[in-house]
Design brief:
This protein is mainly α. The protein is built from 4 helices and no strands. The radius of gyration is 14 Å and the shape is globular.
Amino acid sequence: MQTLELEAKDKGECYAVIRAILLRLPFAHRETIKFLAEHLRLVAANSHVNKMTARNIEITWSLSVGGVVGAFVFPTPID
C-alpha cells in the first residue's frame, strides 16, 4: 500500500492535496467517504441536541481511524 504524506502550506493547498488523494480512490470508496462526511456534518450541526460537537467528532474519529487525536481537524467551525 502506498502512503502519501500531507505537507500543505495553506488551506487551499491542503484541500488540493486531499482532493487529489480522494480522486485516486475507487468510485465506491469516494461515495462512502462523501456519505460519511455529510452524515458527520449533520451530526455536528445538531450538537445542541446530541452533544457531538465538531471537536468531539474529531476526537472520536481520530482515535478510531487515525490513531492520534488531531489527525483530523475541521478547518472551520461547524455551527
